[in-house]
Input
Amino acid sequence: MVFNPPQGIVLAVGFDDIGALDSLWDLYQRGKLSMTFQDVIVNSTVLKKLKTTKIVLRSKILESEYNNCTNELLSRKMKRLEIKTREVDKKMVLRLAEQQRSFTDNVQSLKDTEENIELSLGEFALTMKQILPQGVLELKTIREFETNYKMAKGTSRVKNTKIIDQFTDMLGKLRTTFTEAFTQLYVPLLQVHSICESEKQKQIKRDIRRKINIGQELMKPEAPLKIVIHPVWARKILPREQSLFRGLVCVLPLAVEALKDIDFMLDEYINDFVL
Output
């Protein structure tokens, strides 16, 4: 609900619990609330509709209102509500269930590709040794691998790059899938009110965010490969080639496992509701 008095806008915000209220108050106390509202509310679509090029928001929370909200929340019995009594939350969970089906298919497709690459790791290592310039003893980042491949592709020293193409294509799909996990799964998860959730579901929501963070960090082009180890795939690389290929190839199974965990946890979260 938004009101428009002469001096500005009064924005009414609802909270599930004290933690959410305190988080907003903390942003205000640290001088970051205006910036947060600016990022959330003002975008190119809004500017276009208002036929302007710039909007600067300044926010203020009255301490008396914060205290009143705190007291009201503390006086309530925060008993879990059945989601079937809350139509908005029920629709969001049904939307999540629909999006999860597509996500599950994507993850399974990535798993199939991962298994094919695993069977061809010997071919991958052999082709990579043909691609890399002489004297290269270590691949420090994914970007370093991608740069070397782009420079070598099409030259006379590389003829069959099918397995490398499959590998680079999968890297791109993994990055896209983690982005989709955040925008299409986690953002809708945040819109399900916690008063409808069990403590287990609240923890699952936090765990899903953590898994997405891990996956996105893993897939960053500049992330260090030296620390990336998968217990099974690492053993498939020859000892003398560990510094070259171990971290690079281990990115795939670790990323796929994180996506499978997200899919499993989301399934648990949804099935805990009685719709």
